[in-house]
Design brief:
- The protein is an all-alpha fold.
- It folds into 2 domains: 62 residues, no CATH class; 416 residues, Amino acid/polyamine transporter I.
- 65% of the residues lie in helices and 2% in strands.
- The protein has 22 helices and 4 strands.
- The longest helix has 33 residues.
Length: 596
């Protein structure tokens, strides 16, 4: 039901920004740069106003913790703050290839040999299957949300609607961290593979700066140039970027086809023994690492706002591409361990060395070319998706709304894309990112688990209809699902000798999911496309993502905790007050709300 809310005077005085800052008939220049564009909220008008805002942190925090957005706010109200709209120009064909281009990069070429040799052994295809199942479950969840809420914010918007602003902020901060670190790492990998293609050592094209600390002393100007080049293409239009992506992705298909066919020709089934050198634990430890090879598919969900028919095209493009990629990854991993014994694999260049051992030394250049192309399209699609995430986060005023502005001619978020690109370029120029890589992985799994949880809330809770008794049952069953999943992961990583822990946690997970299915009626049906077998598949998605999170190890959680603490400090000092003011701003036009 649509309700018209009259404009109200916000606490602290008048504020106008976003679409509301444009009076009738006035067209502001896109290329502008003022304090009011970055911090238009009353809390940041001057130091006195900021001190007053800080003194009201407690009440404001309570206000925002309880706030949940609506579908209409994400789809109608927030996009107006961009002043110009993103252009609907994509089909399911574009989305499928964007999914392929964003996922199939260095991961399969870089980490397969490493994890096959030191963790899973010849069972590495099972690691890819386990990670692929988790990714596929998450893609189902994202497809339903993107069909119902085709917003550029992706998981950020979904969490704002269902779990509230605070958890959405944590997701947004982790999304930005993942975007910066992931793009920088991919760009540095591009330099390494380019050097290999030239027949040189991976670090030979970097500049050694002995005055800097270890890990930051190899400067990489090529990575900076590659990042800027890919982002420049993305800035000039979504449609052209998509077309370039699917045309160039045909090269990846050719390289993968060569690896599979030539690999099976030189395969020896005897290399598969022993199949489980490190047992099931090695398989799942490798699964947590190779999951990185699947990351990037969530970028497709951020393109829903630019899709002609998102309700139909997003599920086709997202689920279709992830299903195909999972099969391809498993087959490629199987080819590798059949070509060469797992304990002889080169952890850094497994495919190239395996083909060289088979008498095809020239193939390493083909593999390097395929990886280089995969990284390029990964950066290209990443520039698209990261810019859209950042745009929606800025629309909500969690970062300055200046970065929400969409260029009137190109229909792209120029400032948001530049923000991510410049930040990533600074990191890529200095840092090898060995430490931040694990933070990126754990951030991704954390967000995927939250989105699956949000889908169950969306299906089983309607804030105006659900009785309190059903709400309490929903909260109880969800808490038990999460607790049992965390318990199973913790027990697995404690290196147990028996199965007593699984005999407790797995039945508890099963019974809590069954209880949700039997005792809590669904309050909402998907508008067009929905996840099948609810609540089982979303519950399984929560369990698998939390299980893989637990497999990343203690150090990853310490780094994740430190990053989260820094994010919370920013929220309390800046984000909280900006979003509070934005929620209470004066609008000359009517504010449309939807009560779910």
């Amino acid at each position: 039901m649509y309700t018209v809310i009259p404009s109200m005077e916000p606490i602290g005085g008048e504020v106008s920004h976003g679409a509301a800052s444009i009076s009738a008939g006035e067209e502001r220049s896109y290329w502008r740069w003022s304090k009011n564009d970055f911090f238009p909220e009353p809390s940041f008008r001057n130091w006195g106003a900021y001190r007053a805002a800080l003194s009201r942190t407690g009440p404001r925090l309570r206000d925002r913790l309880l706030h949940r957005s609506t579908d209409a706010a994400e789809l109608l109200a927030l996009p107006r703050r961009s002043e110009h709209g993103l252009r609907r120009c994509l089909s399911w064909w574009d989305l499928a290839w964007l999914g392929f281009g964003s996922v199939v990069g260095t991961g399969i070429f870089v980490i397969t040999g490493q994890e096959a040799r030191f963790a899973a052994g010849p069972a590495i295809p099972l690691s890819y299957a386990a990670a692929g199942l988790s990714a596929l479950l998450s893609s189902f969840v994202y497809a339903e949300f993107a069909s119902d809420v085709p917003s550029a914010g992706g998981s950020f918007s979904y969490l704002r609607i269902e779990l509230g602003e605070f958890l959405a902020y944590l997701a947004a901060a982790n999304i930005l961290l993942e975007a910066l670190v992931g793009a920088a790492g991919l760009a540095r990998s591009w330099t390494s593979y380019f050097a290999t293609l030239l027949g040189r050592e991976p670090d030979s094209l970097r500049i050694h700066a002995p005055a800097l600390a270890a890990g930051f002393d190899l400067l990489d100007p090529i990575a900076v140039v590659v990042l800027i080049a890919c982002s420049s293409v993305a800035l000039f239009g979504t449609r052209g970027t998509s077309t370039l992506n699917w045309i160039t992705s045909l090269l990846s298909v050719a390289v993968i086809g060569f690896i599979i066919v030539a690999g099976f020709i030189h395969a020896d089934p005897a290399n598969l023994a022993p199949f489980f050198p490190n047992g099931a634990k090695g398989v799942f430890e490798a699964a947590a690492v190779v999951y990185w090879a699947y990351t990037g598919f969530d970028m497709v969900a951020t393109m829903a706002e630019e899709t002609r028919n998102p309700a139909r095209d997003v599920p086709l493009g997202l689920v279709g591409s992830m299903s195909a990629i999972t099969v391809v990854y498993c087959v490629m991993a199987l080819v590798l361990v059949m070509m060469q014994r797992f304990d002889q694999l080169d952890p850094n260049a497994a495919y190239a060395v395996a083909f060289a051992a088979a008498g095809m030394k020239w193939a390493k250049y083909l593999v390097a070319l395929g990886a280089l192309k995969g990284m390029t399209t990964g950066l290209l699609v990443g520039a698209l998706g990261q810019g859209r995430y950042t745009t929606q986060i800025a629309r909500a005023h969690m970062i300055p709304p200046y970065f929400a502005l969409v260029h009137p001619k190109t229909g792209t978020p120029v400032y948001a894309t530049l923000l991510v690109t410049i930040s990533s370029a600074c990191i890529a120029f200095f840092s090898s990112l060995d430490v931040l890589a694990t933070v990126s992985s754990i951030s991704t799994l954390f967000i995927f688990a939250l989105v699956a949880l949000a889908l169950l809330v969306r299906r089983y809770y309607n804030r105006e209809v659900t009785p309190r008794a059903n709400l309490l049952k929903l909260v109880f069953f969800l808490a038990v699902i999460v607790a049992s999943s965390v318990g199973a992961s913790a027990y697995w990583n404690s290196n147990p000798k028996g199965w007593i822990g699984y005999a407790i946690t797995m039945p508890v997970w099963f019974l809590s999911t069954l209880g949700l299915a039997v005792f809590v009626p669904q309050q909402r049906a998907p508008k067009v496309w929905g996840v099948p077998l609810v609540p089982w598949l979303p519950s399984l998605s929560i369990a698998t993502n939390l299980f893989l999170m637990g497999s990343l190890g203690y150090e990853a959680f310490v780094r994740f905790g430190i990053c989260t603490a820094v994010m919370l400090v920013y929220y309390v000092l800046v984000g909280l007050h900006a979003t509070y003011d934005a929620a209470h701003e004066e609008n000359d036009t009517e504010t449309i709300k939807v009560e779910a």
